[in-house]
Structure formats: C-alpha cells, structure tokens
Write a structure and sequence with these properties.
Length: 76
C-alpha cells in the first residue's frame, strides 16, 4: 500500500479559490457589524450630547472655577 502523492502543483491557487471568498465575506460581515454596534451608537451619543450642550455656559462655569489663566473670574 502506497501513500497518495501530495498535490503540490497549483495548491496555492486551489486554496485561494476556496479561502479568498470566505475571507472577503467575513471581513464585510465584521465591518457591517462594527458599524452598527460601535459607530452608530457613538454618533447618536454625540448627537444627543450636543443637542443640549451650551458652550457659553460651560465656558462661564470654567472661567468662574479659575481654569483659564487669560480669562479672570467675574468676582475679581
């Protein structure tokens, strides 16, 4: 009983024909999953934050706390 000869000629091409579509399919699936599980909720969180964010009010609060060197608190 002899062992079958290994298929060396064209092995890379045959393996790529099988694995390349699977790799592309999985990468697209992961990209879509990342988009809808990470980026969309993050964009929505930023949108919700900036709907009610008042930059002038925040600046005045930081100025009164003495955070800035160039803008003195109104009490001084």
């Amino acid at each position: 009983m002899s062992l079958a000869k290994p298929a060396m000629r064209g092995l890379l091409g045959s393996r790529l024909r099988f694995h390349l579509p699977i790799a592309f399919g999985l990468s697209i699936l992961v990209a879509v999953a990342f988009k809808y599980t990470v980026t969309e909720p993050r964009k929505q969180a930023y949108a919700d934050f900036y709907k009610q964010y008042d930059g002038v009010k925040e600046f005045n609060a930081m100025r009164e706390a003495g955070v800035f060197e160039s803008a003195r608190p109104s009490g001084e």
